[in-house]
Amino acid sequence: MGCCVSTSSRSTCSSRRNGDSVLPSCFEIGFSAQKRTRRTFSDNVISLKHLQSVPNRIFMNGRSRTSCIFTQQGRKGINQDAMIVWEDFMSEDMTFCGVFDGHGPHGHLVARKVRDALPIKLLSFLQSCESKQTGSGKACFKGNLKPDEEDPEKDCSAEDKLNSVWQEAFLKAYKVMDKDLKSHPNLDCFCSGSTAVTLVKQGSNLFVANVGDSRAIMGSKDNNDSMVAIQLTVDLKPDLPKEAERINRCKGRVFALQDEPEVCRVWLPFDDAPGLAMARAFGDFCLKEYGVISVPEFSHRFLTDKDQFIVIASDGVWDVLSNEEVVEIVSSAPSRSSAARILVDSAAREWKLKYPTSKMDDCAVVCLFLDGKMDAESDYDDQGFSSATIMSNHSGNPIESDDGQKSEPCLQRNFTVRSSDENETCSGLTADREGETPSAEDQNWLGLEGVTRVNSLVQLPRFSEERPNP
Questions:
Q1: What percent of the chain has pLDDT over 90?
Q2: Spatial CA neighbour of 306 closest among 216, 207, 231, 222
Q3: Whether domain 55-131+158-383+415-426 has CATH 3.60.40.10
Q4: How far is the C-alpha of 330 from the C-alpha of 310, rounded, in Å?
């Protein structure tokens, strides 16, 4: 479908403080020129079967040195959300975070598969780039690039190279991830898929890639030292003009059902199915010929001392809480290690208050604190968690395998997909995963309020022999 990449307008060119311009010929990803960097497991080739042995990687409810994560099952069946924080991702100053929201009958397996495999693919592309550059004998510069306050327009080559490497790595990783899902022998992704909001923090640099309608925001202090919310990603909905144009150009259809006029969905050209409530996703191969893509929107920004924390969450949180409310809840949490759990609890209460007849959506939250500090271990234990890599699952789901292949749970009806007979009776009673169209004035995309709450998919497509050729 072509390259769909956007870059943050806040990014600036950089040079050294003494006025000498940085003229690199390649990008140093991390550990090759850092003599004091501790060698980590990610220095080696990683396969899915080794993931349980990777240090500083958490994917269940718990905390790490700089973050806390929490997920809670909604009322639709098995928890289809997944999350991850991977510290020392490629070097000591690099952290990978992600939230993945599955949908469809196998959505939980797709989300877990992407959670496990996507970071490895990104790591592989970064290491390949590092190997080529260091092997060429060219000089490298450190990835912790900062803007020059004295002359921000001087020498753009450093940041341009930085953006180019990370942009290419994310695009390749997402492309290969979707290709692997399509050819997976044990996972049917034809009518199942997952969102993905992923980011890498390296020093003062933040790289973000996003598909779907999960969201990342940042809590930062303004000039008056008050906390404000900065949205880092756009909810990629079918009614966004550029998304709708692409889908229509590929013969897909974008329209809203009569009983939910605010919720635009993607439909096949020859059938009123599946009604996908997002314009980009991993999987969903029944719609890949008709405009739904897995190409992420990419952005890069420089972090400042005013930036406090980042929150990544699935739409179960954003459906009921605004960006400002989320920042307020996290910043006022009694301890940093409890912030993610408290945010999920707050979302659960709001679901009961705002949509008492709807089924609460799954919620997953990652809170990354940018100063690298967390609570003392004793404070964390008081919250009822275990430290290090947490292997408990508060959602009650069965213990999963590394890749979702060997211990695949029995797939019972989880209400993610409704049959056509149920549409009329259940359309007003189930929960939706929707976000508001971006405002051109303030670029602050808040969760939709006051709309019918249904599911990400309306129904499975019904293919027949009369199906027209695309």
A1: 55
A2: 222
A3: yes
A4: 10
Task: Look up tokens 């909905």; give the residue.
Answer: 237
Of 327, 64, 349, residue with least CA distance to 215: 327
Q: What is the distance between the alpha carbons of residues 255 and 265, in angstroms, rounded to a whole number?
A: 6
Give me Rg for the CA atoms of the chain. 22
**Dist. CA 290–CA 312, nearest whole Å:** 29
Give the torsion through C-alpha atoms of 51, 55, 58, 63, to 10 deg.
Answer: 170
What are the tokens at 420? 């056509």
Reported in sequence order, the residue ranges of 285-344 that DSSP labels E, i.e. its strands, are 297-302, 307-313
Contact 366, 97 (CB under 8 A): yes
d(CA 172, CA 295): 9
Determine which of 1-10, 99-108, 304-313 has the lowest per-residue pLDDT on average.
Answer: 1-10
Give pLDDT, residue 398.
40
With cut-offs at 50, 70 and 90, classify the pLDDT of residue 401. very low
pLDDT (average), residues 256-281 = 93
Count CB neighbours of 334 within 10 A: 12
Give dist(CA 48, CA 22) in Å, integer.
38
Rounded to whole angstroms, the Cα distance separating 151 from 16 reads 9
pLDDT: which is higher, 34 or 468 = 468
Q: Find, among 171, 402, 203, the residue nearest to 299 by Cα.
A: 171
In tens, the pLDDT along 187-216 reads: 999 999 999 999 999 999 999 999 999 999
